[in-house]
Amino acid sequence: MALNNFFAPIAPEKLTGFKSTTLGNGFDSTNPVSSARYPLSDAGFSNAPVLVPGGALAVASVVHKCDFDAIDEVFLWCGNFSSTDATLTLGIGGTSDYQSISIEIPKKAGLVQVYPGVPHSGISLYIKASDADALNIIGFVTRKYLNVAGETEFGYDASE
After folding, report:
1. For the whole model, what pTM was predicted?
2. Does 2 map to a domain?
3. Of the N and C termini of the chain, which has fewer Cβ atoms inside 10 Å?
4. CATH number of the domain residue 41 falls in
């Protein structure tokens, strides 16, 4: 039985002194896990749909905080359970106009993919709706880890 992509390339001289900002530990070898799926950071362990804050006075809220030590490919779907069309505003790294995408979600729509696995590192994604109690969002993250701990020049896993 072959173990495809089980062992990542190792450059031992590059591994000394690596310190993960998340774990706070030193590592002397590569991580055997090259990628993993996670729920959205603000969806809880069950990854239940998140109600999107909306209305004239609503403030955008964080739906996911991307890891600093990896690349997070973020996949998001939005549903509109109200009787009117609504607009989802997705902020990528912030809530300024130049950081935002507006997506029209039709009334009574099932899940509509609104973010197709775009990779990010170290930023937050924000959500806001044009109407209160109209939209929910659900998704997951595929987190890609460094091929060699602490060395971005060796890239992130791409075995899929």
Report:
1. 0.75
2. no
3. N
4. 2.60.120
